[in-house]
Predict the 3D structure of the following.
Amino acid sequence: MKILNIKTESNLSKILIGEKLSNLSGYIAGRNAIILTDSNILKYYSNDLPKGFPLIEMGIGEKNKTLGTIEMIMGKMVELEADRTSFLLSIGGGIVCDVGGFAASVYMRGIPFGFVSTTLLSQVDASVGGKNGVNFKGYKNMIGTFNQPEFVLCDNSMFSTLDEEQFRSGFAEIIKAGAIKKATLFNFCRENAVQALQNDEEIITNMIYQSVNIKAEVVEADEREKGERRLLNFGHTFAHALEKMTGILHGKAVSIGMVLAAKVSNILGMLLKDEVIELIRVLESYGLPVQPEIPIEKLFAAMKQDKKRVGDSIHLVLLDRIGHAIIRKLDYKELQSIINDLRSDI
Ligand SMILES: NC(=O)c1ccc[n+]([C@@H]2O[C@H](COP(=O)([O-])OP(=O)(O)OC[C@H]3O[C@@H](n4cnc5c(N)ncnc54)[C@H](O)[C@@H]3O)[C@@H](O)[C@H]2O)c1
Ligand SMILES: [Zn+2]
């Protein structure tokens, strides 16, 4: 097991990479813990969860990442007479952790919380960094808080029950971390695709550790996303629009989004074509999609509705080489001409 500490203004968060679910009891011993999880986790792991703690079950999927679910959880916590000494432990993927982190942050103005992160995507991204929240009126993560969990337990053996598509989609965020900040991680991904896809313990723990380390550095420098943290959105402006329009998995959308952002970088003369091709090859070696299934103009129209948009322009994270990203503000005129170039390119 490797431990990574994330220190921010609000908290100290311990990320336990390669820790086992069977050791979870030790982290909540003597605490007034309440477990929040979903029906899939209960289906596979109900016998492995720590005994003697009250349990709240929530539904599966984005449609349950709502204020309605928060209200349900609050209701159960009141029934359980939870108070400021309570500890909310979310066990699940990004959805359960995002919802649980938000519920804990607002219940009685905030109680301590922790996560057992059960998908690859949530281990490398969703449960690290302190962003919690729910969707609202069709907008993803529109309502939420910045607040760090006390700990995040990451057990890669839980990926064995995860749907193959879900598992693969998590690699997009690892490749992203390498692409924006660390070429050596990107190269490691390129060289170890076969073992990683077999959930080889050593390889995957190494990848998770490296990407969480990158995220930790960025979050420590800029917890509230005023500057540096925006780099983590590489591929995400396109991805959020794609997810909204087509409903594809986050990681798959990020994969396509990164390719589009890399192509934009190339059109703007910042990134070599060979590096765009290399990014595409690595993503494909993880079985990730690299082309949108909808016309590019429709995608840009949806991007204009992104909540991170500022006025008549859009902030895009671009690459000037693999391992280094920068943020460029583009106005729509400039964007329109890039769309035309992308159309002939794709
Ligand atoms: N807070 C952040 O910084 C951040 C970052 C990235 C993504 N997110 C959010 O994370 C969410 C996506 O997370 P996700 O990809 O983990 O999806 P998810 O939470 O929906 O989990 C995917 C599916 O797998 C099931 N599952 C989870 N773990 C399992 C396991 N070990 N075995 C079997 N089934 C399992 C779940 O029940 C669900 O059906 C999105 O809502 C996204 O907005 C948040
Ligand atoms: Zn993401």
User: Anything to note?
Assistant: The chain has a mean pLDDT of 92.
